[in-house]
Specification:
Layout: H1 18-33, E1 49-50, E2 64-67, E3 73-75, E4 78-80, H2 85-96, E5 100-105, H3 111-123, E6 127-130, E7 133-134
Parallel strand pairs: 1-7, 2-5, 5-6
Antiparallel strand pairs: 2-3, 3-4
C-alpha cells in the first residue's frame, strides 16, 4: 500500500437506527411530561360554573382525576375502572411523592361519582382541589 495515496474508506451499506430511536424516545417522554389538561373536551368533560372559581394557577397539577357524565374515571387522561381507582392512586401518589390532586367532574355527572373520587384520593393522603369554570357573565 502506497503511503501517499489516500486510504480507501468502507462504504456504509446501512443506516444505524439506534440514535433515531433514542431521539424519538426523548421526544415522546418530553411531550408526555409537558401535557396539560387545559382542554378537557377530549374527555368530554364540562366542569360546572362557579362565581368564585379562580383562574388556574401557573403550576399544572401532577395528578388529575376526572369524572365524565357517565361516571367513568380518568387519572391523568387514562381511563381507570372504579374498582381500580384506589390502587392506581396508591401507585401514582406513592411512586411520585405527590401531595395534592385536582378533581374535575362534569357538570352533569352524578355527585356520588365525584364524592367517590374525593374519598379515594383522601384515603391515599392527597390534598384535594376541585376545578370549576368561571361564570361567563
Amino acid at each position: 500500500m502506497n503511503p501517499l495515496l489516500p486510504a480507501r474508506r468502507k462504504r456504509i451499506t446501512g443506516i444505524n437506527i439506534v440514535p433515531l430511536i433514542d431521539v424519538m424516545t426523548v421526544l415522546i417522554f418530553f411531550f408526555l411530561m409537558s401535557m396539560k389538561f387545559d382542554d378537557l373536551r377530549q374527555l368530554g368533560i364540562t366542569p360546572p360554573q362557579s362565581d368564585s372559581a379562580a383562574e388556574a394557577e401557573g403550576n399544572a397539577p401532577q395528578l388529575v382525576i376526572a369524572v365524565n357524565k357517565n361516571g367513568e374515571f380518568f387519572v391523568n387522561s387514562e381511563r381507570v375502572p372504579a374498582e381500580e381507582l384506589s390502587s392506581r392512586l396508591t401507585r401514582i401518589a406513592g411512586g411520585q411523592k405527590l401531595s395534592d390532586a385536582v378533581i374535575i367532574a362534569d357538570e352533569d355527572a352524578a355527585m356520588k361519582y365525584a364524592i367517590f373520587a374525593v374519598d379515594e384520593a383522601r384515603r391515599n393522603g392527597l390534598e384535594i382541589r376541585l376545578l370549576a369554570r368561571p361564570n361567563a357573565d
